[in-house]
Design brief:
mainly alpha
Length: 326
């Protein structure tokens, strides 16, 4: 009896820690499946140019897992999503331009991410498609947390904090769920992600260094060499994670949900470990993440495709307005 009780308490503790991971991190906008789809429909349509545009469109998120240095994480994420033209300016020709073209399409000001978090085109106008869908999902996530606490002799967090955590988690789950749904409008989206990571031009790391290393050196008070190494190491890890992510999206929906939920939990554990917090090995929150991901998919299934296709047109128009082509 005591053993079972301890296990239940551990599960709740682990779940709350998982929530805190999301609440403490910057919410991601569209997932990588969406960015891959958008860039596959912009710019060059074939060959290495198209492949590198796709990878370039995902890579602005490469710093999102630098949990051991949250200040640098926040700074670099802000740079790649708002100071994106640095990459376009540094790109000279050939595949550098392909990578930079994709990179620019991702941005959070007038690029693809802006429809997710600022103003949706077919749903969530004035607040963002992902934000609006997360608000719909929040009661389900909040209910799951409250139910867990009701079953145990533990004092739940402040209701306002718990509600805020539930909303942040909902953002992440909506983004994961939409990427799995993307297979319905492009069954080869996993292949495209894998191919883009495997075939990305070796010019990319140096392009990122030219764009961001000097400013990172000044911001963090480190040498240019150390800043460059930080950037290239993050890109190498990101590239590997994109290969895994693409493989997850190649599977049937049930397996994709399982793999992406496991990845989400592992990322949360890595974040917590960076702060000296370890979830006990016997605590498994993956089943709950899977359930909530399925709920997120249900909330988006009817209209996600129209929003993504509208986003393609929106970004295409803005690229023309900004005079970005090659």
């Amino acid at each position: 009896m005591e053993k079972r009780k301890a296990k239940r308490i551990g599960m709740v503790l682990g779940m709350v820690m998982l929530m805190l991971f999301f609440f403490s991190s910057e919410g991601f906008p569209w997932g990588w499946g969406v960015h891959a789809y958008v860039d596959n429909h912009l710019g060059k349509k074939k060959g290495l140019s198209n492949t590198n545009e796709i990878y370039g469109g995902m890579v602005p998120d490469l710093f999102n897992y630098m949990f051991d240095n949250p200040d640098t994480l926040g700074y670099l994420s802000d740079q790649t999503h708002k100071e994106f033209m640095k990459v376009w300016t540094e790109a000279r020709c050939g595949l550098e331009k392909s990578l930079a073209y994709g990179f620019v399409t991702h941005n959070d000001i007038w690029g693809a991410d802006s429809t997710a978090h600022h103003s949706g085109l077919t749903f969530g106008q004035g607040e963002g498609y992902v934000i609006a869908k997360a608000e719909l999902l929040q009661p389900v996530v909040l209910g799951a947390l409250q139910q867990l606490f009701e079953q145990l002799p533990l004092t739940p967090p402040d209701p306002d904090l718990l509600a805020a955590i539930a909303l942040e988690v909902s953002h992440e789950l909506v983004e994961n769920g939409i990427d799995i749904l993307m297979k319905r409008i492009d069954p080869t989206i996993g292949h495209k992600i894998i191919s883009s990571a495997l075939r990305r031009s070796p010019e990319l790391p140096n392009l990122l260094v030219k764009a961001y290393a000097a400013d990172l050196s000044d911001h963090a008070g480190i040498s240019f060499h150390k800043a460059a190494k930080m950037i290239t190491s993050a890109e190498m890890q990101f590239r590997r994670s994109m290969i895994f992510y693409g493989q997850a999206l190649l599977q049937d929906d049930e397996t994709s949900i399982e793999l992406i939920s496991e990845q989400t939990v592992n990322v949360a554990k890595s974040f917590l470990a960076a702060y000296g917090i370890e979830i006990p090995p016997q605590v498994d929150v993956t089943p709950l993440v899977k359930f909530l991901t399925q709920e997120a998919m249900a909330a988006c299934a009817d209209d996600f495709a129209s929003e993504i296709k509208a986003t393609v047109g929106f970004v295409s128009d803005n690229l023309a307005i900004e005079g970005i082509s090659y």
